[in-house]
Amino acid sequence: MSTATIDPVSHHTDNTDTGDTVTSSKRPRMGSLRKTALAAGVLYLITFISIPTLFLYSDVKDPNYLIGSGPVTPVLVGGLLEVIVALAGLGTAVALYPVLKRQNQGVALGFVGTRTLEGAGIIAGVVALLTVVSLRQAGAGAAGLVAAKALTSMYGWAFLLSQSLMPALNALLLGSLLYRSRLVPRALPMLGLIGAPLLLVSVIGTLFGVFSSTSAPALLLAIPIAVWEFSLGVYLLVKGFKPSAITSSVPQPPDDPQPSRFPDD
């Protein structure tokens, strides 16, 4: 019977009888949970790329945009950024769902649903502003000012319901799941659970005309949710999930799915 010796450092296996040397290279593999956390973290951070639209949309929201002569490129770029945000937002829910459903499948599915509504509202708002651009390129002129005003108002309402109301609901659903599961430090979901009612106050105040969506009170009430989402994205990207009861039941891929075998002669 042949004898085999394994060098623990080089992972070389010598079959002394045959003189053959077989190399088994083991490389550490990233676990499925770490990949999930990494993907969700990256997607959360991508959702912040639409911040420049505050400036890119300044011209198209001007009542005289149709009869102006400025470039349309900023609106097109802003629309592209918001579409990316819509898709990234949905991606965060899809990425986290396989883990979150182990805590509460109904709430996790609700999070996917609110993220879907958020993305749909964002894209509806983008369509409204791109239609204004189309009116300008078609030479609508002063005759299209009423339509342009209606479309920009539509964008404002779509923004309120998709990018203000939905994030508050997202925080309530996701925050409760993360708080109970202890997948991240509890301070993070607590920030989301505190920020959600504040953002709801901002939405209601804007809805009933107490203040505008760009006023100081509205912006201040939205800060905790923004900090919550950004902090969560950074934590998931850098640290991943903490060990918890639900992660222990998630199957992990083996380090070496096809180990080398050396049967005895």
Give a quick set of tags describing it.
single chain, 265 residues, mainly alpha, three-stranded antiparallel β-sheet, 7 helices, 3 strands, 4% strand, disordered N terminus, disordered C terminus
Explain what the structure shows:
With 265 residues, this protein is mainly alpha-helical. The protein has one domain. It is 61% helix and 4% strand. The protein is built from 7 helices and 3 strands; from the N terminus they run βββααααααα. It has a 3-stranded antiparallel β-sheet, with no helix packed on it. Strand 2 and strand 3 (20-23) form a beta hairpin. The termini are close together. Residues 1-28 and 254-265 have low confidence and may be disordered.
Give the termini distance in whole angstroms: 5 Å
Could you give the order of strands across the largest sheet? 1-2-3
Average residue-wise pLDDT: 86
Q: Any idea what the radius of gyration is?
A: 26 Å
**Low confidence ranges:** 1-28, 254-265
Helix content: 55-70%
The major pleated sheet works out as: 3 strands, antiparallel
SSE topology string: EEEHHHHHHH
Secondary-structure content class: mainly alpha
Count of distinct strands: 3
Query: What's the structural domain tally?
Result: 1
State which percent range the strand residues make up.
under 5%
Tell me the overall shape.
elongated
